[in-house]
Structures are given as C-alpha cells and as structure tokens.
C-alpha cells in the first residue's frame, strides 16, 4: 500500500496516537484559518512587523538617534531619506523601524499580563460562585472604573515617566473585560454535563478550572486580545503623545506623532508616517483577530 | 385525488473540504390532499428534503431537481422574490422547537397579527379578531390572555399549537411539519397531532410529516416514505407498515423495544451498503 | 443497594423555592434494574442528581450500600456510584480526546495501569482501539455514549445511574446501546437506576419501576404489571395509554 501523503495523514478522522491527534487538530485549524484571506493579510503584516523589529539594525538605513539639523523636515522622497526627516533631522523611516520594537514590547507585555490576570480572576470567580464571586467581581468593577489616562498620570507622578509605567497603567485597566468574559464563559461551561461528569470522578476545583474550563475559555480570550491589541497600541501611542510613555529620544510611534504635531500643516509627513504605521498594525491585529475567531469559535465547529 | 406537490429527482449536495456530500439523492414523490409521512434516522436527509422544497437551503448547499411543482408551477424556476410569496403563503413549515421559532421579545398577539398582516390587507382590529379565531381553532381556551403573553411563558405544547396557528393563518395549501412533536411530552403530543389532523382535514390541505418516530408516523399519516442515506428505500400505506418488505424498515421495526413482546436482546440493524447504493424508490403516483 | 426515604430536593430558597422532588421513597436491591418514569418536570432526573451528589439542597434519607449519604461525598462514593448522562453531545469535553477522558478518570481514582485499562474499557463497550485518540466531534452520537459508559465503568462501580441514556440517539443506535447495557449488567452484576420518558425502553430494561408526577412518586410497580397495562394509579394509566 502506498504511503499516505503528509496531508492525508493530518486530515484523518481516525488519529492513531496522542501526537497524531494534536497535530491533526492544529493542521485542520490552520487550514480553515488559511482560507480567510483577510486574516492571512493580517498575519503577514504582523510577521513583517516581527521581522522588522528583529532585523532593525540591518534594515534601518540610518541611526534613529543621529540628528542632522541642517537637514530638518526634509520631504518624502529626499535622497537617502525616503520618508523624510523630522524636526531634528532624524530619518523617519529608521525611527519607524526601531519604533516597531517598542510597539512589540508594549504589545507583548500587555498581552501577557492583562488576559492572564483576567482569566484567573474570571474563572475562579465564575466557578466558585458565592461570596468569592461577589468580592472578585467588585474588585474587577473598581479597576474597570479607573480611567486609563488618569491612572497613567498617577503612575508617572509616583514612579516617573517611562514606557514600563505606561504599560503597567494600560495593563491594570485592560484586564477587567477579560475577567468578565472568562467569568461569563465559566458560568456557561459550569452547567455542562461534562463538568458534572468529572465532578463525579472526584475532581477538585483546581483540576476542573485548569484542565477543563481554561481550554475552553482560552479561545475567546485569544480572539479578544488580538482585537484589543489595536486599542492597546493606540492607548500607548496616546500616552506617548501626552509625554507619559516612552520618553525622547525614544522613537515610539505615538511620541513621534506628538513631535510632528506642530508641523502638520507644512510638513505633514512627520506626523502622518507614524500614524500610518499605527493604523497598519492595528488593522493587522483586527484582521488576525477576526480570522482567529472564525477558527477558534466553538460554535463554528472545531 | 388531485396532486398538490410533485417532486421529481430532488438532489441536495453540500461541498466540503473532503469532497461533495449528498444529503438527498434522487427523491421523488407526489403529495395530494393527504398526510404523507417521511421517516428516517438522523442523516437520512428527511429534514433537508422539507427545506429543499421551500428553497430554504443556502449556499454552499446546492439543490437540483427535475421539478418541484406546486399546482403545476415549478418552484425551482422561481426567483428568491417569487419564493417569498410561496413560503408561508402557499407552503408553511412548523418546526421542532417553538422556543426557537417564536420571537422571544414580542408578545404572541403581536407576532400572530404581524404574520397575518404580512399576507392580508387588514386593520389592526381585524387582524386581532382573526388571531383570536386562529387561537381558538387550535383549542387554546384563554385566547385573550395568550395574546398578551410572551413565548417563554408558554409550555411546549401551547407554543407548538401557537406555531401551528400562525403557520395556518395565510391558508396555505401544504403544511410541512418537521419533527413537530419531538420536543413534547407524550400526553401533549397526542393533543397537538389531533389539532393538526383536524385543521388539515377541514381545510383540505396536504401535510408532510417528517419524523424519526416510525410508529408515530404510521399512526398519524396515510402514506409513509422511509428514507435512508438520502434515498427513499420504501413506501407503504400507513396501516400496512407491519407488512413492510425492505430490510431497513423491518430492521427499524424490530429494533424498537415493545411492551407487548419482551425480548432479551433487541435486534440490531445490520446496515447493508446496497441500501444506499440502490436507486431511490419513487413516491410519485 | 439503594434506599431512598422521604427524599425532598429543592432549588432556590424562600419565595423562589421550587420543590423538584417531594417525599420520594423507594428501594433498589443489589443487581436489580429499577426504572423511574414520568414526563418532563416530574423530578425523575433530579432524583438521580441528588443521589450522585449534584443537587445541593436535599433532605431525607439516602443510603447506598449500607452507608447513609452526607452533604459532601467521600471519594470512595464515586467508586461505588457512577452516572451516564442523557445528551451524548454534551457529556464529553469538546477538547479532550477519548484517551484523555478515560485516562483522567482512571488517574483520579488512583489506578496505576492506565494504558491497559483504557484499552480494556474501550473493548468492553464495543469500541475498538481506533477510537482511542479521537475527539468527540469525530464520533457519532452512539459512539460518544459508549465513551460515556466506559467513563462511568472506569472506577468499577456497583451502582450505575442512567439518565435517559438513549433518548438523544437514533432508534437503531438505541438498540445497540440498550443491548450493551443489558450485557454489562449481566457480566458485572451491576445495579441500575434508569430514568426514561419512554415506557417501552423501561419495560425492556427494568424489573421494577416508579411512576412520577410533579415531583412525587405516584406508583411503584413491577414490569409485568406494566406489560399487562394493569397500572393502578390514574396518572400511570393515562401515561400508559398515551404511550401505546
């Protein structure tokens, strides 16, 4: 009998081992994701972003910090400065490339802190019920009530300006919605027969939450996080714009828009180029999130 | 008996990553002013047949037939806009769970009145009176109270009777009932069936009754089509069901536990691939 | 094996309290198969949930194998009593393979030779090895129910609670599952308490049965009485009449 091709092996309905089953599930999820063109565009943009950030020193034509006051506010298409220069003569393209590292840094930190805290709080709250639920949800409400910028200002006042403090401020205000989602999902899942069944095997709360509830909550959280990334980037850019985030001369995209604000009438590219960069990355995250939801949404089939 | 509906060689296909799946394969039958039962297990294509007649199957599903004629006019040739005049108006459908077919945020009265005014020019007062009349026709006693109530306040049996009332308002020629009593308790089932029976007879309608319950269908209908794997494998008169010849039908009958014939083990249906490969038996008269 | 005495089960409290089961009393002998029939809302499934420990508010007496049941069930209880749920599409975790489901169950009960036992369990319920690593969405309704039965059998229980195990299945599949349950009971000496709304299924599977209406048991009869249609209580009679 001829050997099955790898593709057939992965598409099988009768897996022969644990590894086979897992790989098959991942492959089929990938195929259905790949069918969504918009999502693939989003994915490629983000892969490009990671690539640019990783290879910044190689890709960037100039040093992003070197000033050239004689060549301030050079327009688009100037020789050796494709995207022009800013008010201090620094090459905008190089600053955008290096700024992608900062953007990724912010995204990674927030994506690590906020959904995980939200998942923990939400699932424990939803599963335990009773006063645990009430207390945790009131704590969530308190954090939800904090306006992000005011909190960032408070942090800056207390701890000094800087990107880490901005990220902290954003994360602290970003986790409550994830807690709410996780709790809502947990309440639905908790009533299911398969949870009753495992309770009848003597499983404790920890095992049920981590091995039975988390795998089901994670999909909707992942989707929500990618869709929120656009907002996170904009929030960081907003803080940068206000001078509360990354400090000069750091090439953070929001700070670049702020610096370029004064010249927007005559030298529009100084503010617009970083704006376009933020727009592209936000759009990419949105498209990716949409595609992921189609793949991971349990109602759409596994 | 005149023919209300003539279905010839109906196919319903669903393309998927693993190839094309044929849910209904060459089904043909005619429906007169009678009660026709379509029986099959899950995956037999019985529900798909009902939906295909009403052209309710959306892409990527593909529906093909030599003809699906209502009163001589082929429904397959009609545009979507023309089908809207057929659905509900000339052919109505009652589905399994009234919880999912009734709008939960409108009162029952509003829904019935809306349904009526969609198909008839009438003032609100006229429609209200007609709605009361319909509710009484389905043996709902407290019609005024029911008009003001919301669907979730109704029991399953009442909800289903309300659905039947709504579906019969436009005076359709054919009613397709897809598992209308499967979600109901045994005692309520009989009630709902009696009402459907009475209404169908008095209005001279044709009824297509789709179910998985062979005995129920045999009890209620005049003719029974048995479907397996998208094909019709046997047709018989309801009262002659016990004399059914096809091994699948016999297998289904024998695998049911019966109070009057206790057995140690139930007979397990051995599926013969020949059943799905054989051509569909035609139910056209 | 099972002794239920004046069992009351309720949900909610105060004004919103709903009494699902009122004063239910019956006994099931070891090795017997006992049926609970009634319409929806009669409380039959609630009794099973109360016995298995899934209903929080109950009063009255429940004795399993000589031991009275308390509010919190000890681990040993789950080695004696197990349950098979109604909806095969909801009783298996969508992200766990069959192997994980059975393996986790065996692990929780402290068995060592998990691989060997998983293989044997799958054979006992009539599923072969090729089903071991499938996910629920790759299984049919009947196959899922077999996995659920295997899961219930994993801790080697003595009392099996069956909540309408075949009502979500096709007629032909129902026959296979009922035959499987009959064989398992005979081979392992199990005691069954089976809930169903279908009198002919109960007539086939059970030796004695209780008819429930609105939370109360109105009659307990042997299966012969059922077959001869000699029910005494008017509700039982109407239920019988409607089912035939």
CATH topology of chain C: Rossmann fold
Total beta-strand segments of chain B: 11
CATH topology of the domain at 1-90 and 223-285 in chain B: Rossmann fold
CATH structural class of the domain at 1-90 and 223-285 in chain B: Alpha Beta
Would you identify the CATH architecture of the domain at 1-90 and 223-285 in chain B? 3-Layer(aba) Sandwich
Main β sheet profile of chain C: 6 strands, mixed
Concise summary:
The complex is a heterotrimer of chains A (302), B (285) and C (244). Chain A has 302 residues and is mostly helical.
What does this structure look like?
The complex is a heterotrimer of chains A (302), B (285) and C (244). Chain A is mainly α and 302 residues long. Chain A has one domain (38-60, 83-300): MetI-like fold. Chain A is built from twelve helices and no strands. The longest helix of chain A is centred in the middle third of the chain and has 37 residues, at 92-128. The two termini of chain A are 31 Å apart. Residues 298-302 of chain A have low confidence and may be disordered. Chain B has 285 residues and is an alpha/beta fold. Chain B has a domain at 1-90 and 223-285: Rossmann fold. Chain B has a six-stranded mixed β-sheet, sandwiched between helices. In chain B, strands 1, 2, 4, 5 and 6 form a five-stranded antiparallel β-sheet that branches. Chain B is globular and about 60 Å long. Chain C has a six-stranded mixed β-sheet, with helices on both faces. Chain C has one domain (2-243): P-loop containing nucleotide triphosphate hydrolases (Rossmann fold). Helix content of chain C is 36%, strand content 26%. The mean pLDDT of chain C is 88. Chain C contains nine helices and ten strands. Chains in contact: A-C, B-C. The interface between A and C is medium-sized, with 28 and 34 residues.
């Amino acid at each position: 009998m001829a050997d099955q091709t790898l593709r057939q092996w992965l598409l099988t309905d009768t897996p022969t081992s644990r590894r086979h089953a897992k790989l098959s599930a991942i492959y089929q999820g990938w195929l259905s994701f790949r069918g969504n063109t918009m999502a693939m565009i989003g994915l490629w943009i983000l892969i490009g972003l990671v690539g640019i950030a990783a290879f910044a020193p190689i890709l960037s034509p100039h040093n992003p910090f070197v000033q050239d006051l004689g060549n301030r506010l050079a327009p688009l298409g100037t020789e050796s400065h494709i995207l022009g220069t800013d008010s201090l003569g620094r090459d905008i393209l190089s600053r955008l490339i290096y700024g992608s590292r900062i953007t990724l840094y912010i995204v990674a930190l927030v994506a690590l802190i906020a959904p995980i805290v939200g998942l923990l709080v939400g699932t424990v709250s939803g599963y335990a019920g009773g006063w645990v639920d009430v207390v945790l949800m009131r704590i969530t409400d308190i954090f939800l009530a904090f306006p992000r910028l005011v909190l960032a200002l408070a942090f800056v006042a207390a701890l000094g300006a800087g990107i880490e403090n901005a990220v902290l401020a954003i994360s602290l205000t970003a986790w409550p919605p994830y807690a709410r989602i996780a709790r809502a999902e947990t309440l639905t899942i908790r009533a299911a027969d398969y949870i009753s069944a495992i309770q009848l095997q003597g499983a404790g709360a920890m095992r049920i939450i981590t091995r039975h509830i988390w795998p089901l909550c994670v999909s909707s959280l992942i989707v929500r996080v990618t869709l929120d990334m656009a907002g996170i980037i904009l929030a960081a850019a907003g803080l940068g714009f206000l001078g509360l985030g990354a400090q000069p001369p750091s090439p953070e995209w929001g700070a670049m828009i702020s610096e370029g604000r004064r010249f927007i009438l005559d030298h529009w590219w100084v503010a617009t180029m970083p704006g376009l960069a933020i727009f592209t990355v936000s759009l990419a995250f949105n498209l990716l999130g949409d595609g992921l939801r189609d793949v991971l949404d349990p109602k759409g089939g596994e | 008996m005149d023919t209300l509906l003539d279905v010839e060689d109906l196919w319903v296909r669903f393309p998927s990553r693993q190839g094309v799946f044929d849910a209904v394969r060459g089904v043909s039958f005619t429906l007169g002013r009678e009660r026709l039962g379509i029986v099959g297990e899950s995956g037999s294509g019985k529900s798909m047949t009902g939906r295909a007649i009403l052209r309710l199957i959306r892409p990527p599903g593909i529906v093909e037939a030599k003809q699906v004629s209502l009163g001589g006019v082929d429904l397959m040739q009609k545009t979507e806009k023309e089908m809207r005049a057929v659905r509900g108006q000339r052919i109505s459908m009652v589905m399994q769970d009234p919880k999912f077919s009734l709008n939960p945020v409108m009162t029952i009265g509003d829904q019935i009145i809306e349904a009526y005014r969609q198909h008839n020019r009438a003032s609100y007062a006229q429609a209200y009176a007609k709605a009361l009349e319909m509710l009484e026709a389905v043996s709902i006693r407290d019609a005024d109270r029911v008009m003001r109530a919301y669907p979730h306040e109704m029991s399953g049996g009442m909800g289903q009777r309300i659905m039947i009332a709504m579906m019969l308002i436009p005076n359709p020629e054919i009613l397709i009932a897809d598992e209308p009593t499967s979600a109901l308790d045994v005692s309520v089932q009989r009630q709902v069936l009696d009402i459907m029976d009475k209404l169908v007879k008095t209005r001279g309608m044709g009824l297509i009754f789709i179910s998985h319950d062979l005995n129920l269908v045999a009890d209620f209908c005049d003719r029974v089509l048995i479907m397996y794997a998208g094909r019709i494998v046997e047709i018989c008169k309801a009262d002659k069901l016990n004399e059914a010849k096809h091994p699948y039908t016999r297998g289904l009958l024998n695998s049911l536990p019966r109070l009057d014939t206790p057995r140690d083990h139930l007979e397990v249906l051995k599926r013969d691939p020949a059943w799905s490969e054989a051509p569909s038996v035609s139910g056209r008269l | 094996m099972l002794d239920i005495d004046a069992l009351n089960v309720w949900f909610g409290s105060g004004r919103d309290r709903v009494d699902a089961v009122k004063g239910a009393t019956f006994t099931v002998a070891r090795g017997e198969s006992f049926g609970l029939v009634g319409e929806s809302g009669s409380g039959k499934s609630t009794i099973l949930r109360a016995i298995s420990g899934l209903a929080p508010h109950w009063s009255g007496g429940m004795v399993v194998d000589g031991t009275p049941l308390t509010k919190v069930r000890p681990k040993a209880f789950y080695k004696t009593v197990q349950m098979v749920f109604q909806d095969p599409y909801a009783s298996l975790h969508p992200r766990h393979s069959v192997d994980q489901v059975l393996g986790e169950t065996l692990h929780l009960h402290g068995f060592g030779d998990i691989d060997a036992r998983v293989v044997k369990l799958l054979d006992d319920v009539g599923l072969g090895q090729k089903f071991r690593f499938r996910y629920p969405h790759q299984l049919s309704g009947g196959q899922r129910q077999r996995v659920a039965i295997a899961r219930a059998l994993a801790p080697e229980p003595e009392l099996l609670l069956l909540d309408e195990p075949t009502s979500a299945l096709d007629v032909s599949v129902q026959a296979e599952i009922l035959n499987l349950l009959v064989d398992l009971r005979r081979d392992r000496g199990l005691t069954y308490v089976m809930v169903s709304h279908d009198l002919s299924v109960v007539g086939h599977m059970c030796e004695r049965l209780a008819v429930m209406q609105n939370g109360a048991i109105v009659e307990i009869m042997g299966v012969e009485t059922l077959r001869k249609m000699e029910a005494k209580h008017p509700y039982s009679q109407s239920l019988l009449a409607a089912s035939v």
